[in-house]
Amino acid sequence: MEIQAMVTTNEKDFEKQTLLLDDPKADEVLVKIVASGVCHTDATVLDGTLPVPRPAVLGHEGSGIVVKAGSNVTTVQEGDHVVLGFAYCGHCHNCLDGNAGGCENMMPLNFSGRNKHNETPLHTHDHQDVSQFFGQSSFGTYATVDEKNVVKVDKETDLRYLGPFGCGLMTGSGTVLNSLAPAPGTSFVVFGTGAVGLSGLMAAKIAGCDPIIAVDIHDSRLELAKELGATHIINSKHENPAEKIKEITEGKGAHYSFETTGVPEVTLAALHCLRVKGTCATVAVGKRDLTFNVTNDLMINALTLKGVIEGDAVPQLLIPKLVKFFKNGRFPVEKLAKFYELEDIEQAFEDSKNGSTIKPILILDKEYRA
Prior knowledge:
Helix content: 25-40%
Order of helices and strands: EEEHEEEHHEEEEHEHEHEHEHEHEHEHE
Strand content: 25-35%
């Protein structure tokens, strides 16, 4: 079938093209895309930090409606509302151990441009393959995806807001709820109050953390963090965050810190603010190396620094929980989001980069009504 999609080439970041999309195989699902979030990971492909073969259709925070399900698909059917998550194999040790985010085949399944069949369902009219991204390529009007990419969600919830649950918001909240798993009353600090950081902050509130401290360099974002549950805010342009956090925590430091910026100096601050036996989780894609002294910065206080991919989440388990939290007002994604038309995709990326929009969401189905 023909679809409209924003294609990333060697010459242009985005060019709207008509492509051919393969019908779903027995284990695949055809989804009409309603909306797709714009994520920092898409931007890291554009700048070459994470290489993906071009031409490609990016986008990996899609939400939509099932049009057709393959003959072996059992979890969804035509008409179901779904969020598209990342691709994972389902059979490696980590997947079988309940950690799909640590799938041993994560990189080829999400960044090689091809699916588990070593194919892409996207093609030009002259039969040139177009790379699929994250097993979905949601910057197109339709997507053919593996069943494991699809998460059924409540039809009563506005689909336009749900796409980011498939990556950025799942990463932030999952890092807190799954990987750090803080006990109620433990102290939590988030460094960087973008979409990932704020979703982690909202998850920390759900988990019962206290205090909840937000660190950033933008006062407007810090005010939003306070609205979403931060008990304390720190502008690191004006205060030393590690010293201030020690003051807030009665000299002991925080139990947990969550680093989302990828800036080496911020990662060190996220370590230095911890108490003895504290844990720092990082999800950031940074461009500069971090240099630290293993003895003084880590071992002497028995600290843990851990990298987390996709919130250590199984999308089919975490996303429905987040949708329930969103529906009952405990995960107010609408306060982070701004809608853009697909044709305004470059503006959406620019607004994300300059910080004027925390979570841009592209609307691909303008006729959809919640």
